[in-house]
Write a structure and sequence with these properties.
single chain, 8-stranded mixed beta sheet, 7-stranded mixed beta sheet, 29 strands, about 35% helix, globular, binds zinc ion, transport, protein transport, SEC23_SEC24_subfamily, Znf_Sec23_Sec24_sf
């Protein structure tokens, strides 16, 4: 569990917080194997016996004072008695007790009744493939699924389904694959005429991967796109004979979840559905009206960025609830450049704990690699995340792909979560007092994360398991707790000096996404602009105060826009500028596809702070040869490139990696860089540590089209995208901020 705060020294009270102009909060990556400094937890068992505070329910931790019979809670100060068992356990302090040796523990919990009955919880995966598509789409989907089959552990069950104007269920357990079809009524109201269970019993549909791999592959080979002839002769005929669409996605998903739900808690504890789509649902339940996209283009008066961001129907949000109740997590893979209205569809994946992937074409899609990667990494499910703080402050907002508990405040449920998934909180003071200036009690945050993992019995230490359990899986419930102590800042400079600008960026990104969803992109941009103005003003205010005390008044008239006195704040103006240039916040008129914007919103709101930094302000390094790095960091400016005499540049924009050879590069330098060189080694390292597969491009300046690379050189671009030729970019942005700061300070 990695936790990073906006500043390691907390503001002393709400006045100090306001005066700082900074957000106050933290990010948490609960299922990360290590903490933010690379240290793992102390492992143990009997998490249910860990003492808890009778006042605030915090767990006992290393910051609590422990006496012979009692302990004092480090969060609320309550004195709690110890049970006789705990007294015996803690009577001689010992390094082998996790909770007394580390503030980061991971403890096994006993399974509750229903989980205990699931002695053979098997991982279940279902692929749902859009046949209302093209040959190219199906080829890509097939190769993705063949990659997936290689990544699935023995003992997993796999089901293959298709959807169009009908649902196809494959039985691959017999000698030849058999498909059963259920036709979907075309209108948005009718349900299926037949339950899927009646078309094919679920356990016939879910096939063991290890014995059926070849037949699953054979069944995949038989998939063909639905032809218009099939569609018109099927149920897809409109009343007046006009051919209607044929992608009955909503009905198919609803039917699949109900189908799988019958074995939830019996065969499986979590089933994952991979939904492959080549366009918007336009048939049956949950069909989407994609004409709203065209209408936006036609009209000039409406804020398109605002109109296209909200969902047009609650159908997919409600469907996500059905998925969750059926123990299903949905990953949506959209391979299309058609307007698909991900704004409506996204809820299906984010609320069920899945991911949303968007590929604009089948040609350069990294879908098979993403699939393999996703299945090859561990995930936790059925998770509960709870953040507690000492009494002086409390969480204000929470951000990320979880949903709140209907009953308890500050308790979040996460259906499925991998080691990358990151969440954020911001804080407010509980009252006007704040942290006492003279108190010995520092601010404390405790994050508890309860989760379940499926463990193959091979992975268990216990060598006495009977051989019959080979290839089987068992459930493990665990409790991970991280307790952190922070310091308080005695003055504003102490806050500024302890700022983590990447965490500040994370909170800003969450806030602007929320504002742009509610009030449009324009409002999101305005919020960001105003925030930077206020921060700069507050910083200058604090700084000038120091100057005045020193009797140096001449400096006070000059606004320091670059935060030259505080290296921790210095990156922020550049990051805000880059965020304003990011497709996340660029205007519709600049050609940002609404689905791409939604995809970025979903991606950026789960990234940990350093990855997000890379996505917003890509890192640019240079090489003098493929084997020798020249400079580790360049600003994203054409001028910087021109003045540097390096022939090779490597740009990492999180989703895209570009190797760029300048037009003046020595022609004897091998292109593309050879497999065994340092540059390739670095590229591979970057690829391995990433939650998605970045797209890798090689570009030769002067020979290839370099637009893809040059678009990332943002510092000469106009912040509003209105005047590319002006080449004022970042410099004029700073001038503008500086003027606004001067006005604000008056
Ligand atoms: Zn307490």
């Amino acid at each position: 569990m990695a936790v990073r705060a906006t500043a390691s020294r907390f503001p002393i009270d709400s006045d100090a917080l306001e005066a700082s102009g900074l957000p106050w909060g933290l990010t948490v990556t609960p299922f990360a194997a290590k903490d933010e400094t690379g240290i793992g937890p102390a492992y143990g068992s009997n998490g249910h016996l860990l003492p808890r505070c009778e006042n605030c329910y915090a767990y006992f931790n290393t910051y609590c004072e422990l006496d012979q019979w009692a302990w004092t809670c480090s969060l609320c100060g309550t004195l709690n008695g110890l049970s006789s068992d705990a007294i015996a356990r803690y009577s001689y302090p010992h390094d082998s007790i996790p909770e007394t040796s580390s503030s980061f523990v991971d403890l096994e919990l006993p399974l509750d009744g229903s989980e205990e009955e699931m002695t053979q919880a098997r991982p279940v995966y279902v692929a749902a493939i859009d046949l209302s598509s093209s040959e190219e789409f199906l080829e890509l989907t097939k190769s993705a699924l063949l990659a997936a089959l290689e990544a699935l552990s023995p003992g997993s069950l796999f089901g293959l389904a298709t959807f169009s104007h009908k649902i196809g269920l494959y039985d691959v357990q017999g000698p030849i694959p058999v498909v059963k079809n259920v036709f979907i009524p075309p209108d948005a109201e009718s349900k299926l005429p037949l339950e899927l269970e009646d078309a094919m019993p679920l356990l016939q549909f879910l096939a063991p991967v290890e014995t059926c791999k070849d037949r699953i592959a054979a069944a995949l080979e038989t998939l063909r796109p639905i032809t218009s002839w099939e569609r018109s002769s099927g149920a897809a005929q409109g009343i007046d004979g006009v051919l209607m669409g044929g992608r009955g996605f909503g009905t198919a998903m609803e039917a699949l979840f109900n189908y799988l739900g019958s074995e939830f808690g019996n065969t499986f504890a979590l089933a994952r559905v991979f939904a492959f789509m080549s366009g918007p649902p336009d048939y049956g339940r949950g069909q989407l009206d994609t004409s709203r996209y065209g209408e936006q283009y036609a009209s000039k008066r409406v804020d398109a960025d605002r109109a296209l961001l909200p969902e047009q129907t609650p159908f997919y949000k409600d469907l996500a609830t059905i998925a969750v109740q059926s123990g299903v997590c949905v990953d949506v893979f959209a391979v299309t450049n058609e307007y698909t209205d991900l704004a409506s569809l996204k809820f299906l994946s984010i609320e069920s704990g899945g991911s949303l992937f968007l590929y604009s074409s089948t040609d350069d899609s990294t879908l098979p690699q993403d699939m393999f990667r996703m299945l090859n990494r561990p995930y936790a499910f059925n998770c509960v995340l709870r953040l507690r703080t000492s009494t002086e402050f409390k969480p204000l907002h929470s951000y990320g792909h979880f949903f709140p508990d209907p009953q308890y405040e500050n308790l979040q449920h996460i259906i499925c979560c991998d080691s990358y998934a990151t969440y954020a909180y911001d804080f407010e003071f509980a009252n006007n007092t704040g942290f006492s200036r003279h108190s010995r009690e520092p601010p404390v945050v405790q994050i508890a994360f309860q989760y379940t993992v499926v463990v193959p019995t091979e992975g268990l230490q216990n060598s006495e398991l009977p051989s019959s359990s080979r290839g089987k899986h068992v459930l493990q419930r665990r409790l991970r707790i991280r307790t952190m102590q922070f310091e308080t800042a005695q003055n504003i400079n102490e806050i500024y000096d302890s700022v983590d600008h990447e965490v500040v960026l994370s909170l800003l990104v969450h806030k602007v996404i929320l504002v742009s969803l509610e009030d449009g992109v324009r409002e999101g941009r305005a919020l960001l602009h105003d925030w930077l103005v206020i921060l700069t003003a507050q910083y200058n205010d604090a700084y000038n105060l120091v100057q005045y005390k020193n009797g140096n008044k001449s400096m006070s008239s000059q606004i320091d826009i670059t935060f030259s006195q505080c290296p921790q704040l210095e990156p922020l103006p550049r990051l805000v500028f880059a965020l304003l240039r990011n497709p996340l916040l660029r205007f519709h008129e600049e050609g940002v596809h609404p689905d791409y914007r939604i995809y970025l919103q979903c991606l950026f709101s789960v990234l940990e702070p350093s990855s997000l930094h890379c996505g917003i302000y890509p890192s640019l390094t240079s090489y003098s040869t493929p084997d020798k790095q020249a400079y580790p960091r360049h600003s994203l400016s054409r001028a910087a490139l021109l003045t540097s005499d390096s022939p090779i540049f490597f740009l990492d924009a999180y989703t895209t990696l570009i190797v760029f050879y300048t037009s003046t590069a020595d022609p004897s330098l091998p292109f593309p860089p050879p497999q065994d060189c340092l540059l390739r080694k670095n590229i591979n390292m970057v690829k391995q540590g990433r939650s998605i597969t970045p797209k890798l491009m090689f570009i030769r300046g002067g020979k290839d089209d370099a637009t893809a690379f040059e678009n990332y050189l943002i510092e000469e671009q106009d912040v509003d995208g209105s005047g590319f030729a002006s080449a004022k970019g970042f410099v004029s942005f700073l001038d503008d901020i500086s003027q606004s700061v001067a006005e604000y300070m008056k």
